[in-house]
Amino acid sequence: MASKSLFIVAIDFGTSYSGYCFSLAKHTDQIRQVFWGHEHGLNTVKTPTCILFNEKREFMKFGYDAVMKYHTLPSREAHKWYYFHHFKMKLYNKKITSNMELETDNGEKFPALKVFSESLRYMKDHALNTIREASYQTVYVTEDVTWVITVPAIWDASARQFMRLAAKEAGLISDMFSEQLIIALEPEAASVWCKQLPQEGFVAEGGNRQKFEESPGTQYVVVDCGGGTIDITVHEIQENQSLKELHKASGGGWGGDTVDENFKEFLKEIFQDGVWEEYTQNHPAECHKMMYDFGLQKCSSSREEVYMRCYHNLTKVAEHKKKDISLFFDECKQKDISLFFEGVEGALWCNGTIIITYEKMKSFFAYSVRQTIGALQEILNKPEMAKVQYILVVGGFASSITLREEIYQTFREQYRILCPQESQAAIIKGAILFGHNPQIVASRISALTHGVMICEAFDIAVHDIQKKRVSKADKYVYCTDLFKKLVGIGDLVEVDGVANYIFTLTEPDKTSVT
Ligand SMILES: Nc1ncnc2c1ncn2[C@@H]1O[C@H](COP(=O)(O)OP(=O)(O)OP(=O)(O)O)[C@@H](O)[C@H]1O
Ligand SMILES: *[C@@H]1O[C@H](CO)[C@@H](O)[C@H](O)[C@H]1NC(C)=O
Ligand SMILES: *[C@@H]1O[C@H](CO)[C@@H](O)[C@H](O)[C@H]1NC(C)=O
Ligand SMILES: *[C@@H]1O[C@H](CO)[C@@H](O)[C@H](O)[C@H]1NC(C)=O
Ligand SMILES: [Mg+2]
């Protein structure tokens, strides 16, 4: 694992935001965090997962730089460039192939692998530069660094494989099977981070002074609330401070970005008669800017109405439409656009600003909150989860007071609910610790049934006569095409655990099996 490397770099490649941390491979007690957005007056642990390619399909910018550049592009230019965000969700719940394509807002196709690998390449170069500056050392990718990339636990194997391929394309590793790349699961990484936290590391509610990992037998649920996915896992602390998974990875694609999606749907409802469609088609960059503003507004912790500036071109498109309709009315422009808000509940038009009531804002969170609480209840209501005492809420979306409040109200009587101070960074920092010692998660619960195809002595009572075969060599009568289960759904599987099965060939002269 990290033994040969000098450094460990952990990349949290998120749906909404990405970031990385690094440490010396031998001393993971000192984890260096990298902050983003200084050029834009910001200072955040992650940067937006947004990437911009020019019209020649060459990589231009990533993160805040991509966002800001795209926002300043005039509509005419914006159409020619390739801008991607939220593309990580394209790998969730789908069959993934290496030649998969992504579509831009205006319907152009672009290879997904390039989008992912260029993003990773940017993170890699950024990380290597930072390490060089910090250590006065020349670091070479292949020998000196062990990379950890986090992915949702609920992703399937083909998506994980795709990330590995993208990492190879980006030059993080030289071959697909390299041990210099560790794919870590987001909620596991968060769990590894949280378990070594003392009480001071947690806000929301206190605890005793001990570290979590000093109480073997403690069982807890970790909820990684991201922008794309909500990832849930249940762990028990073992005597040797390693972790045992108690429930298969669960969750779904109802992260914080569904709040923005719901807001967009609401705008579509307001700006009817094709106004919204025309706007998003003709002014994609400005529309994105408006959504970006909303992304900041929704993080407000005050329970008040929200003021959204309505940009020039949306006003223009809207006025234009209403003019067509109210051609014979001598109404002023302001009046025109306010017509869109008649009969709309939860929003008002006021001097170029859209005012959204607090109730309406809260309603945008409802879907995500409901799904998250439902999934937690489903897990916690199982009899085998009776000993769980804690719910640890991590991830960027864990900062949402709406989500936190609902979780708290629902579960506070039975569970202690804890949220680490830097809930968004818990995943990256935990990934460093995981990279240092992947054995820290000692066993897992299989989310799928795994098995192989075999033949068995033919039994007329159970086997299909169509599948009956006779071997050439010794006239052995067998049934072909049978499934032999090796691991079942919900089975406990130890890391590096070994199970032995003995199979023989149906024909002795066979030289290979698939
Ligand atoms: N205070 C807040 N209130 C509401 N939402 C918030 C708040 N802070 C962050 N978010 C939301 O949390 C999400 C980002 O969290 P995070 O960085 O953990 O996601 P990610 O890692 O990019 O996504 P994923 O893990 O699903 O790939 C975004 O949807 C963001 O808008
Ligand atoms: C808004 O419209 C104006 C005029 O049509 C155009 O010049 C400008 O680029 C547009 N802005 C954006 C961000 O789309
Ligand atoms: C810790 O204990 C678990 C279960 O008792 C075991 O499976 C695992 O191998 C141990 N890990 C280490 C590093 O000793
Ligand atoms: C709208 O703007 C006008 C002039 O700019 C101002 O007089 C008026 O008070 C504003 N209305 C509201 C509700 O803010
Ligand atoms: Mg995440």
Automatic annotation (TrEMBL):
The lineage of its organism: Eukaryota, Metazoa, Chordata, Craniata, Vertebrata. Belongs to the heat shock protein 70 family. GO terms for molecular function: ATP binding; ATP-dependent protein folding chaperone. Keywords: ATP-binding, Nucleotide-binding, Stress response. InterPro entries: ATPase_NBD, Hsp_70_fam. This is Heat shock 70 kDa protein 12A.
